[in-house]
Amino acid sequence: MAPGVVVANGDVPEFAGKTTMYVYVCVVIAAFGGLMFGYDIGISGGVTAMDDFLKKFFPAVYEKKQHVHENNYCKYDNQYLQLFTSSLYIAALVSTFAASKVCSKYGRKPTMQIASFFFLIGVVLTAAGVNIEMVIIGRIFLGLPLFLSEIAPTKLRGALNISFQLFITAGILVANIVNFFTDKVHPYGWRISLGLAAVPALMLGIGSLIICETPTSLIERNQVEKGRQTLKKIRGVDNVDDEFDSIVNACEMAKLVKHPFRKLMKPASRPPLVLAIVMQIFQQFTGINAVMFYAPVLFQTVGFGSDVALLSAVITGIINVVSTFVSIYLVDKAGRKILLLEACVQMLIAQLVTGGLLMKELKATESDLSHGEAVFVVIMVCLFVSGFAWSWGPLGWLIPSETFPLETRTAGFAFAVSSNMLFTFLIAQAFLSMLCHMQAGIFFFFAAWIVVMGLFTWFLLPETKGVPVDCMVEKVWKQHWFWKRFMNDEDEDKGV
């Protein structure tokens, strides 16, 4: 056996090397993209619940909110109000494929710098908005998700990738805390909330100047020797020949594929593509972003005042962050499937109990929900959020990032991210209207989807724990009882 290779999980190679401090620094800096993304998710729900924001841009919603007995479930049912939250995902849906091209041609650093630049433009437009059109245009400039698999050692790839999700949850928590305090700043507290989004954007932009490109990105762009030196720096050892040769070989195979998007349509590419898209759909149809976008609105619906609703959103944000650490600890020990399956049971219970309680106690035109019952709803939401945070949240990004072969990885992940953005937009745009028309039944709607997710995970999701990215085809797809039938044509598809 070559001196630079050790064996993990039986016959799966694990390349020698240390997890250096530089790896952690690179991951933290790149994950500030997650902080931007999370802050934007968390800030919108709190801002849309602020009276000053509603008075300026949505006076009709503000008037409706003052007459809560008209319909408890329909106080915030307004398409433009929902568009304020959902609009940035329209741009993200389109820009994902442009980012894919930029990543492939120029590398990850320029992509991060461009993302932070456009985010800053969006911050200025939203915080200084004088009409709703200006605010929505600003929202369209916000956010580009990034991924980190290429610099992570296989044995820690899950934990390091989940750091991106951890920063998303941290961004949501920070946004909820900011909203709690700026709600008391009249009449421009909402401007402060939106303007502070510039902080993580600046940190990402500055950080991108000091980190290096990934070895894979450098080798893909024919900077081979620089890629070798970068790999030595990242791994903290000089003997990187085996891993370097593996990356070079994978890049050479990738270059044979002239049209990666066309190759994605071939049968051999179908398993990771289907899995990536389905994971994104399922992630959104848990109902998590409906909860995180509109947590203050939801808690006001069940009877809390503005301050208590924002405080409850802070509590769920804390649960979100803490639970993500559970995933970081367990994902490379217990594996992916067990976390997903356990969370399906936990989230299903929370959705059914919440829906049942609201259906029984919270009527459309009158509220019999006691303070204790309202607190119980918050507890059920926390139970739901914790289950999501150690499973479908981080793993919805991790699994697609590690299952595509190199030749289709960027294109495939672009499909995954765009699918996520599409269904995030649909949920964000529709949730308040769904809450108005379905009332408590909306929780049963999401519960039904969770059942489907659990069945898919049990029967069709392969375990990828500890498998190097370049070994996925041989060790995962060709061994799976269902997906192996698509692998027969893999060799003849390589020149596509």
Automatic annotation (TrEMBL):
The cellular location(s) given in this protein's UniProt record come to: Membrane
- Annotated coiled-coil positions are none
Against CDD domains, the record matches this protein to: MFS_STP
A GO MF term:
symporter activity
* GO-annotated cellular components: membrane
- Transmembrane stretches in the record are 21-39, 80-99, 111-130, 164-182, 273-296, 308-331, 374-399, 411-432, 438-461
Matches recorded under Pfam families: Sugar_tr (PF00083)
Q: State the annotated membrane topology for this chain.
A: Multi-pass membrane protein
InterPro entries hit by this protein: MFS_dom, MFS_STP/MST-like_plant, MFS_sugar_transport-like, MFS_trans_sf, STP/PLT_plant, Sugar/inositol_transpt, Sugar_transporter_CS
Sorted keywords for this record are:
Membrane, Sugar transport, Symport, Transmembrane, Transmembrane helix, Transport
Q: What is its main location?
A: membrane
Which PANTHER family does the annotation name?
SOLUTE CARRIER FAMILY 2, FACILITATED GLUCOSE TRANSPORTER, SUGAR TRANSPORT PROTEIN 6
User: What family is this?
Assistant: Belongs to the major facilitator superfamily. Sugar transporter (TC 2.A.1.1) family.
Q: What is this protein called?
A: Sugar/inositol transporter
| Organism, as annotated | Corchorus olitorius
